[in-house]
Write a structure and sequence with these properties.
heterodimer; A: about 375 residues; mainly alpha; two-stranded antiparallel ribbon; 16 helices; 2 strands; about 5% strand; globular; disordered C terminus; B: about 725 residues; about 75% helix; NPG1-like (chain B); TPR (chain B); TPR-like_helical_dom_sf (chain B)
């Protein structure tokens, strides 16, 4: 990723990858117009592309434009081709835009616009993950404290064979899909987000902030509560609210607002770019990503505060959907986020003491 | 003097500015040279030195002072000076001073000195280690402290990576001297140990600050994998930090091979496993009261278990929490959520009942618990009234908290619908049905964007055979979720089939299959076959069943590993398919085929009311009425409320006439109580009335049977 000098044996591979990246930059500049010099004439174009905010903003504005993501969308084609180049650095560049692609796609899927361009990119991510996992589900073997580890001693030595493995499926096995089947849409996007999560430590801040912004819209907290019937207004405040915390990306806000206005003008009732169905297969990767944004090491304050409001929105949504799994996950994140904010002890402790005193009162009452 | 310095070391963090006397002395070194004047100070300071030191250490001090002929060497002087600058907050200056110490060159000597000192302490034979040119342990401590302060100075000026590397040197050195952890016989008062512990703690934090997650995690693991005698709280806080880094770091960093080897059995294969293990260890420490309760640990654990879906295990941990930490209602709520998420709805409901029981009446009712209770009751028709009670209560509470009003009305509507199906009297049923639709409509008005309400509305209307509204809402629902809901598709197909528009229903099923994955396709295939049977296309239906069974077989072979719920669903589906085939062959009159299919179905579950019912029907078709009755009786003895068996039995009994008519009638009445829309039951009731001579009543029954048949879907809604 960095522009360190490379050993001669690897140099040909290195140059090949630089050439690929240069080609990608070239074709991107054809789509976007001119690119900043920092990217265009960089020694390591892939890394420059990954970290260049101006390019990221331009791309995300284009992805949010009304009518984007159709089958003939050049940018989607570029994203698709770039991901298919199988160059890890370039794939990271594509992954940075996963939040925006997924966000715009899921919000628009409801209105049945042609979205073949977005679908192609998402399917490419899904197919990549399918190949990597090789038809196996992602599982976790639950640790058993009866087995010794380097972190603790077991009381009794494990009886061989007697220990039953407690295996949990984190992500079920993937079926290959050539098109987005509507009942599998959430799964396909969810897997793309799982892939995004697996690389999240390399993702730039703007990408994570974009994700948080869309999460707020998906959760749809503001809609249906304060703004009964005024979906658009609610939606705009949700988007802007997320970005107010996010700061900087004014261009994105404008683009977002513009897309809302445009669509809103076109057909008022149609663009409910708000609440979308959030089944667990989609909710789970969302929570993982937001969990990272909230509690990941060395995250900037800006991201943490944004993530915290996203967790609030998700928790609100979970309590509305009455899904216990979602409630428990967001609830714990909410509390952890709060604890990070101020180091005052948990509020529950005070309530529990209240509880006690009341208990004591009851006892007394019985005695007298 | 060294003793005094060491005494200071404990406080170097807190104490800025420093104490003056030493500063005077050390200023001398810095300006002049490493003169012998220090000696005087040394012995003086040594006199009022740390009384905590044991004899051996005091002796060491004396000997080392003697041996070093009352002088400090260059490195020691720099170490002292650097500390002063650090304490004053002059980190750059401190750094400059520390940089003059050639740690690389001194490294072997330090390692040797620590090893020798350790041997001496263990043997309790003083002096042994001091032969040769080994450094005294005090110089070593001083140097290690210098390195630690250097690292801290680097941290202060924001050079985190360099700070971490400096810290690493300390750990490398000490680890080379103590390859198996802190040896026995090193007391708690050892300054060297204290320095080392501080370095262990600091090291991963520095990597974290520098933004190197991988190195940070490696550092945590390194600190935790050897018996460094860190003490409970330090150990626990390192474990917690590692768990947090692993859970939220966002990068999969598997254990290095040497650690895996060390681990041996049951090595964690992913970060989340390792994190959960650490959190479980911490929870156990809490239970044994080795560390105090930390809500963060529990919340991290809930998060970890939620992502991996291990709610039964989580419930166990919630139950283990000592009383007084959570308040009762909250704890019950979390527990109920765990059980519900684990699929143990009965347990969940029991816990919710506790939270809402009489003993909690004095508390303000806990809205989430009430809502959860209503939701749990929604899923089980027999608890309909209890659910309605909760839903009403929730509705009442949420008049003040408007944002739950939609949810509570939704639940209330569903519960009313369930109540209607339970109620015995017609008038009550009608009233409840109306109420249900009204409440659901109200909920839909409040929560305009909640597709689930629309689904419930469609479902309830279908149950009430209000097909027009049902169709409208089912279509709206599928539109709202952009066709992403399998049950939405299924409901739509069933509604259309209830309208007796079988061809279109089949087209919908085809479309749904195109839009779904392999698992859901199996279910749709069965629905398609049922539709084909209803359209009197037995050949096509048999073909579809063949496809279905072939796909099931392929699915079983392909899946190395699947969710138990999926396995069960496929198993049930396979059995249903064989039973469907059996009844299809029965209708076609090919008894042998029917028996073969029935036997196949029985291999899944011998004591299934469905199997015995199917057998009864087959025997009946063969005119073996007596055997048929026995089979149906077996079916009813397994499941006394199994409506199809009641109806079939009544149908056989009715043909016998005489006294059997009364039995048949009572069976049918019972069946209709359970399932008022069963058209076959109405028809048989009509026959009985006709046989009994009450033609008027018979006509009514036939009329009802006809009308219901016209609105019966090919498959019951579940």
């Amino acid at each position: 990723m960095s522009a360190d000098p490379v050993a001669p044996a690897e140099s040909s591979a290195f140059w090949q990858s630089v050439q690929r990246a240069q080609a990608a930059v070239q074709s991107l500049s054809l789509i976007l117009g001119s690119l900043p010099d920092a990217v265009a004439s960089s020694e390591n174009p892939a890394a420059a592309l990954l970290n260049d905010e101006a390019v990221a903003r331009q791309v995300s504005i284009r992805l949010r434009r009304p009518g984007s993501g159709a089958g003939d969308d050049n940018l989607c084609r570029w994203l698709y081709d770039t991901f298919q180049s199988n160059d890890p650095d370039l794939q990271l560049v594509v992954l940075t835009f996963t939040p925006t692609i997924a966000g715009v796609y899921l919000s628009r899927a409801i209105s049945r616009e042609p979205l073949a361009g977005f679908e192609a990119v998402l399917l490419a991510l899904y197919a990549y993950e399918t190949v990597i996992r090789g038809g196996d589900p992602e599982t976790v073997i639950l640790p058993n404290l009866a087995n010794p580890s380097v972190y603790h001693e077991a009381k009794a030595p494990p009886k061989k064979g007697a220990m039953e493995l407690n295996i949990a499926v984190v992500s079920p096995a993937l079926e290959p899909y050539g098109t987005v089947r509507s009942t599998k849409r959430a799964r396909i996007v969810g897997v793309a987000l799982e892939l995004y999560y697996s690389k999240i430590s390399s993702m730039p801040l703007s990408s994570k902030l974009a994700f948080c912004e869309f999460c707020m819209v998906w959760a749809g907290q503001d809609i249906g509560t304060e703004n009964d019937g005024k979906e658009e207004g609610g939606e705009k405040t949700a988007a802007v609210g997320a970005d107010e915390n996010g700061g900087k990306d004014e261009g994105e806000v404008k683009a977002k607002a513009a897309s809302v206005d445009k669509n809103g003008g076109k057909e008022a009732g149609e663009v409910k770019a708000g609440r979308i169905p959030l089944p667990w297969e989609l909710f789970q990767p969302i929570v993982m990503i937001v969990g990272h944004c909230l509690l990941g090491p060395a995250n900037p304050e800006e991201l943490r505060t944004t993530a915290y409001s996203v967790v609030e929105g998700l928790h609100w949504r979970a309590t509305h959907d009455m899904n216990p799994q979602e409630i428990l996950a967001t609830r714990s994140l909410l509390r952890l986020g709060k604890m990070g904010d101020d180091t005052i002890a948990e509020p529950q402790i005070s309530t529990s003491s209240d509880d006690y005193s009341e208990e004591a009162l009851k006892m007394k009452a019985r005695l007298t | 003097m060294l003793c005094a310095c060491s005494g200071e070391q404990y406080r170097f963090e807190e104490e800025r500015p420093p104490s003056p006397p030493e500063s005077l002395a050390t200023r001398d070194f810095s300006t002049g040279g490493l003169s012998s004047r220090v000696g005087g100070l040394s012995s003086r300071a040594g006199g009022d030195g740390d009384s905590k030191l044991d004899d051996a250490q005091v002796d060491d001090v004396v000997e080392s002072t003697l041996r070093e002929t009352l002088s400090l060497n260059y490195e020691e002087a720099r170490a002292l000076l650097g500390r002063l600058e650090y304490q004053r907050g002059n980190f750059d200056a401190a750094l400059q001073v520390f940089q003059g110490i050639d740690i690389v060159g001194l490294r072997p000597k330090i390692i040797k000195a620590i090893a020798a000192w350790t041997r001496a302490r263990q043997a309790r034979r003083r002096g042994e280690c001091l032969q040769g040119n080994a450094m005294s342990i005090h110089s070593v401590t001083l140097l290690i402290e210098a390195m630690l302060l250097k690292s801290k100075s680097l941290e202060e000026i924001g050079r985190f990576k360099d700070a971490a590397l400096e810290c690493k040197t300390i750990i490398d050195i000490v680890e080379s001297a103590w390859p198996h952890g802190i040896p026995e016989g090193i007391g708690d008062d050892s300054k060297l140990k204290e320095m080392f512990h501080k370095a262990l703690e600091l090291f991963p934090k520095l990597w974290m600050q520098a933004g190197f997650l991988e190195e940070a995690i490696a550092a945590y693991r390194r600190a935790l994998m050897k018996p460094w005698d860190l003490g409970f709280s330090r150990w626990a806080s390192l474990q917690k930090d590692l768990a947090v880094a692993l859970l939220y770091g966002g990068a999969e960093l598997s254990l290095p091979p040497h650690l895996q080897q060390l681990w041996g059995y049951a090595v964690p294969t992913s970060n989340i496993e390792e994190a959960i293990l650490l959190l479980l260890i911490l929870m156990r420490k809490v239970t044994f009261q080795e560390i105090s309760w930390d809500p963060e640990i529990m919340n991290h654990l809930i998060y970890g278990f939620s992502l991996t879906g291990q709610f039964e295990v989580l419930a166990g941990h919630v139950e283990q929490i000592l009383p007084g930490i959570y308040d009762r209602v909250e704890r019950w709520y979390v527990l109920a959520l765990c059980y519900h998420a684990a699929g143990l709805d009965d347990d969940a409901l029991n816990v919710v009942r506790k939270a809402l029981s009489y003993s909690e009446k004095k508390h303000k009712p806990h809205l989430p618990s009430v809502i959860l209770g209503a939701k749990l009751c929604c899923k089980r028709p027999l608890h309909a009234w209890e659910g309605a009670k909760y839903a009403m209560k929730a509705n009442e509470i949420s008049q003040n908290q408007k944002h739950f009003l939609g949810v509570t009305n939704h639940l209330l509507g569903v519960c009313y619908g369930n109540c209607a199906r339970l109620s015995v009297s017609d008038s009550q049923r009608l009233k409840l049905q109306n109420e249900s639709l009204k409440t659901l409509q109200h909920a839909a008005n409040i929560e305009k964007n909640d597709s689930e309400v629309v689904y419930s509305l469609a479902r309830e209307s279908t149950m009430q055979r209000n097909l027009h509204i049902a169709l409208e809402n089912a279509t709206k629902y599928l539109d709202m979720v952009a066709g992403s809901s399998v049950r939405g598709w299924k409901l739509l197909a069933l509604i259309v089939s209830a309208e007796q528009n079988l061809r279109e229903a089949e087209a919908i099923v085809d479309l749904a299959m195109y839009e779904s994955g392999a698992m859901d396709q199996l279910e749709f295939l069965r629905l398609k076959a049922l539709l084909q049977v209803a359209q009197e296309q037995p050949k096509n239906a048999i073909e579809t069943y063949k496809n279905l069974l072939a796909m099931v077989k392929a699915w079983k072979e392909l899946q190395k590993w699947s969710l138990s719920s999926e396995v069960k669903a496929v198993k049930d589906l396979e059995m249903e398919a064989w039973l469907d085939l059996a009844s299809l062959y029965t209708k076609l009159g090919s008894w042998n085929d029917s028996y073969v299919c029935l036997d196949k179905a029985k291999t899944f579950e011998l004591f299934s009311p469905k199997c015995w019912h199917s057998k009864g029907k087959l025997l009946e078709a063969q005119s073996k009425q007596q055997e048929a009755l026995i089979a149906l009786l077996v079916s009813l003895s397994i499941e006394p409320d199994y409506v199809p068996s009641m109806v079939s039995m009544a149908a056989i009994l009715r043909t016998r006439g005489g006294k059997s008519l009364a039995t048949a009638r009572s069976l049918l009445m019972n069946a209709l109580r359970l399932e008022p829309t069963n058209h076959e039951a109405w028809m048989n009731l009509g026959f009985i009335s006709k046989a009994e001579g009450s033609l008027h009543q018979a006509a009514d029954c036939f009329q009802a049977a006809y009308e219901l048949r016209q609105s019966t879907p090919v498959q019951n809604f579940v």
